[in-house]
Amino acid sequence: MQWLRRLAEVSSPEQALQVWNGAALATGCLGMDLEPRQLQVLGQWLVEHCDDQPIRMAVRSCLVRLHVQQAMRNTASLA
Prior knowledge:
- By secondary structure, the chain is an all-alpha fold.
- The chain is 81% helix and 0% strand.
- It contains 4 helices and no strands.
- The chain has helices spanning 2-10, 13-27, 36-49, 53-78.
């Protein structure tokens, strides 16, 4: 849901939802409660296929945050 909010910040809510739904259908990552791996797949698809530059930049930002969160979880589990 955070990703969708972020996309709506850089475009209209309608555009964000349309782009999200298109990516979800294309990747098979349906729903709002996605696992990190599903978010990564959906995000990569958006970066590669979305024509809207602000949305692509927002998705890249979300992908970086996801990567950092995963790295922090992995580091915490090693401690």
